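Handout, section B. The chain below has 349 residues.
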Amino acid sequence: MAANGDWSEIQLSFSSKMITESSISHFLKKQYPTSAAQAHSQSESKWQWENAVAGAAAGFATVAATHPLDVVRTRFQVNDGRVSNLPTYKNTAHAIMAIGRCEGFKGLYAGFLPSVLGSTVSWSLYFFFYGRAKKRYSQNMDAKLSPGLHLLSAAEAGALVCLCTNPIWLVKTRLQLQTPLHRTQPYAGLYDALRTIMREEGWSALYKGLVPSLFLVSHGAIQFTAYEELRKVVVDYRSKQKNYGSSDIHVLNSFDYAVLGGSSKVAAMIVTYPFQVIRARLQQRPSMDGVPKYMDSWHVVKETVRFEGFRGFYKGIIPNLLKNAPAASITFIVYENVVKSLKLMRSND
């Protein structure tokens, strides 16, 4: 499972993992209502933490591989054509080459430490909050949660993680926006950024962009809704063509799951991406006189519509797609093939 360098994106990996867990748990309880289900219940906590460690390692690798695209996306998002402290880039490839040429490796990996720290902390907090939410919503330890309660648990955990990690993501954004054109004293790193923000702007500045971040928690729910609806359409169409019946076990292959996963990710991204732009613009560092460019989310919306139109809310979406769509496809390939394997095991028994 891959984690990306932003909570609004890595929470989808959590949702994927939790729904996979729910499917496996439900399958075991249905097919083996006594011994297998009890064994699964006893090992659930250990299984989750083993996967949390594996997920953190996968998250680090993904952040390392995709971080330059994250830097490019952030710079595109805040560039409204009226800023003078950011270079102008023609496209994603030009941005990567220009940053590498002018700022070197350090520029391409600006904000890398808070990205890794944010991913690691988010993984840990999410497993804790999600587990507590599931326990509260279930009547007892063996009760099966409905898909709606799973999504509610995931949304609750996501909102709590946003509250805890927003300062880390704010620092990441500001470090990514530091360029040689900045006229203010640059932050030396994560600790210096936190200390400077607290001294110059107060603790409340650490929570700039929190409101759009909370809206972004819906990203996972939107993707899974789109995925399920697309899968039903494809399965129904193929079943009628080849008389396979209602089950998708013989109808869809790994390529189909990859396309469905990538398509649903794109659909969710199109719906929620404007909130990413609003958040990034809110989290910019104030000018030298200490006045922020945007006062709140509604101010961002009004100014963006006024000077850039609807297109302004989708700046940086190309590097965002390049960074996330492949990971989503891999997620659903693994998820669906695990479920398919369990179904085949049942049919063979």
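Note. The radius of gyration is 22 Å. Compare this with the example in section A.
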